[in-house]
Amino acid sequence: MKRPALLPLVAAALAAAAPLAAQFEAPLPSPKATVTQRVGVTDFSVSYSRPGVKNRVIWGGLVPYDKPWRTGANRATTFSTTDDVEVEGKKLAAGTYSVVTVPGKEAWTVAFNRDLDLWFRTDYDEKKDALRVVVKPVALADSIESFTIVFRNVTNDGADLSFNWEKLRVPVAIRVETKSLVLSKGRAAVAAAKAEDWETPLGVGRYFFNEKLGDPGEAMRMVQRSVATKKGYANTSLMARILAADGKTAEAIKAGEEAIALAKASPDKPNVESLEEAVAEWKAKK
Fold it and tell me: Which residue, 2, 17, 109, 272, shows the most beta carbons closer than 10 Å to its own?
């Protein structure tokens, strides 16, 4: 008569085990993959699955010509960018998109679609494309067994999003206005810096000076803010170099000598050889 009392305990045990069972994932024939790439200050990410050739005819066979393809296997491939970019010369806003391709013998259409539930709840709707571009495939000498997406030809201003499978590569050129982004993000970082933060205006000011970015005098104003917050060798020596670049030799010498004195008094003992040589050159020009 006491055995029914066990039923609540059994039910509780089964309920506790249910979440564990729900977490189980069997290996997929086409494993998931993620590739990320930073271009300048912009982050790209692609999530996709990697089917294999497995002795099959891929183009015009497993993947038909002139029909939408999920650009991988399992769920739809997605592409994310943290900033606005240009894809093959056309603007694409920051965000996450499904990547749908229409393979052709001579050219491919590559679409960035706003519907992230493709092949799960909905079918592909061209009207939801944020952007469509046409690109040329490139023949490869060697066969690639597993479908692979990579970023090639990476620079500070762009990269090629490259789809590679069997003996074909499909490159999609993505370009970023990195200088404009650095300007806006650098200015925003300095504006948001706390009152005691001397490193952020120094770092942004140094980059602006080295890359000749910003309005005239902008890098100097940032370094002056850093110096006013906490004077040290790093910001004072940079101030000296900016003054020298502006032709203010006497002021550059004074700031350079002050920076050298700060370095020698610092427990970190930074290397001042380069600045000492610069100060000597400035003095020779007087």
Answer: 272
Domain boundary among 122, 145, 175: 175
Q: Are residues 62 and 156 in the same domain?
A: yes
Q: Pick from 23, 43, 25, 24: which is nearest to 35 by CA?
A: 43
Residue pLDDT tens, the chain, 286 long: 444 454 455 455 545 555 555 677 778 788 999 999 999 999 999 999 999 999 999 999 999 999 999 999 988 999 999 999 999 999 999 999 999 999 999 999 999 999 998 887 788 999 999 999 999 999 999 999 999 999 999 999 999 999 999 999 999 999 999 999 999 999 999 999 999 999 999 999 999 999 999 998 999 999 999 999 999 999 999 999 999 999 999 999 999 999 999 999 999 889 999 999 999 999 998 7
164 in a structural domain: yes
Report the DSSP pairing between strands 32-39 and 42-49.
antiparallel
- Measured CA to CA, the distance from residue 202 to residue 198 in angstroms comes to 6
Sorted by sequence, the CB contacts under 8 Å of residue 236 that are 6+ apart come out as: 227, 255, 258, 259, 262
Residues 268 and 164 in one domain: no
Q: Which of 151, 175, 199 is the last residue of a domain?
A: 175
